[in-house]
Amino acid sequence: MKFSKVFFLSFVCLSLVSFKSMHAKPLKNTNRSVYFLTDKQQIETLIRKTYEWIETKKTEGDFDVIENKKGDKYVALNTKAHNKIITELKNSTFFAQQFIDNYNKIALKIGENLKSGKIEYWVGELPPYGNDSNPWCDCQDNPESYWKTLKVNDLKIQNNKATFYWTWTEWKDSPKYKVTAVKENGIWKIATLDGFDYKSFTKI
Asked: Which of 84, 128, 82 lies closest to 105 in space, CA to CA?
């Protein structure tokens, strides 16, 4: 009798231990590794995507101006064209507000100087502001699809602010273009570009 009870209890315990719900799904031992991009990788990606956007999607030209009635001199900023570019810069999500504000400030100053006559910009001549180069790269020519191989150099990061310069690898005569980026809500964005320095760009 005792043997029967012991056998019965052992059978019940064994059944409970080995019981498996029909709805239970076995846990898979997934050996996944989480990969985090370094700040340098994030910044390099930002620069490459930004310049691809500039060359393929952004409205061509910067600081468009309007001719006088004679058609021989530019006398004002084309505010409609300018506002369109400002909207494009914002919507791209590549630029910090600092850059957009500075870009807008440059445009308004150019318009003010043209309207007041402080600067004269004759049709067919080079503009009396900037440095006769493309401000986005401080260059007059560039390799095809150069954004694919832009390289970040001398990167220094402190308190969510990064300073560096970029170069391209296709040509030996590559610009050393200075950039500042800031981290906003965990995302790196462009704060300053060397070609859009306010003082040097609007110097009379």
From this structure: 82
Tokens 């919507």 locate to 91
Q: What does the alpha-carbon distance between residue 43 and residue 96 come to, in Å, rounded to a whole number? A: 13
β-pairing verdict for 121-122 and 151-158: unpaired
* Contacts for 80 with CB less than 8 Å, ≥ 6 apart: none
Sign of CA dihedral 32, 38, 41, 47: positive
- CA–CA separation, 182 vs 188, rounded Å? 6
Chain center to CA of 95: 6
pLDDT in tens, 19-37: 444 444 444 544 554 456 7
Note the pLDDT tens digit of each residue in 45-101: 999 999 999 999 999 999 999 999 999 999 999 999 999 999 999 999 999 999 999
User: What pairing do the DSSP bridges indicate for beta strands 73-77 and 65-67?
Assistant: antiparallel
